[in-house]
């Protein structure tokens, strides 16, 4: 099962970055492939969100449970319904020289065992590029006056 992890230092305070990631419904503003994120449920320290994203011309839909840990500046997520067999990961915000080191890590399983040896490496490479674009977009968003 592929695991992809990418980090980037964002020139903004940890609190500002974590604040943006604490409301994932803003993601379409800085993630070009994300069409929509809708909050379906909200609890104390968690949300259930519905996502629609386009990757390589294919539309993916899923719902995830997002759990927020402000003390550790982490957001963990786990698909509860959707197109993949498994999709889970986290966002981490840590102080770093020049601002905040933002890390996005994800593990996924496409759910087609016979094709997994072919599809997983390609999907992991694509997802890595996608995370890099998301982190660039997050940096630009947090550093703008939009956040």
Topology overview:
Layout: E1 3-10, H1 14-21, E2 34-43, E3 46-55, E4 58-69, E5 74-82, E6 86-96, E7 99-109, H2 116-143
Antiparallel strand pairs: 1-7, 2-3, 3-4, 4-5, 5-6, 6-7
What does this structure look like?
- This protein has 147 residues and is an alpha+beta fold.
- It has a single domain, classed as START domain (Alpha-D-Glucose-1,6-Bisphosphate, Chain A, domain 4, 2-Layer Sandwich).
- Helices cover 24% and strands 48% of the residues.
- The chain has 2 helices and 7 strands, in the order E-H-E-E-E-E-E-E-H.
- A 7-stranded antiparallel β-sheet has the order 1-7-6-5-4-3-2.
- A hairpin with a 3-residue loop joins strand 5 (74-82) and strand 6 (86-96).
- The protein starts with a strand and ends with a helix.
- The model has no long low-confidence stretch (mean pLDDT 89).
Shape: globular
Please count the helical segments. Answer: 2
**What is the alpha-carbon Rg in Å?**
15 Å
Mean pLDDT: 89
Order of helices and strands: EHEEEEEEH
- What fraction strand? over 45%
Task: Determine the structural class based on helices, strands and strand pairing.
Answer: alpha+beta
Helical residue percent? 10-25%
Number of strands: 7
Distance between the termini: 35 Å
Largest sheet: 7 strands, antiparallel
Give the spatial strand order of the biggest sheet.
Answer: 1-7-6-5-4-3-2
User: Could you name the CATH topology?
Assistant: Alpha-D-Glucose-1,6-Bisphosphate, Chain A, domain 4
CATH class: Alpha Beta
The domain count comes to: 1
CATH architecture: 2-Layer Sandwich
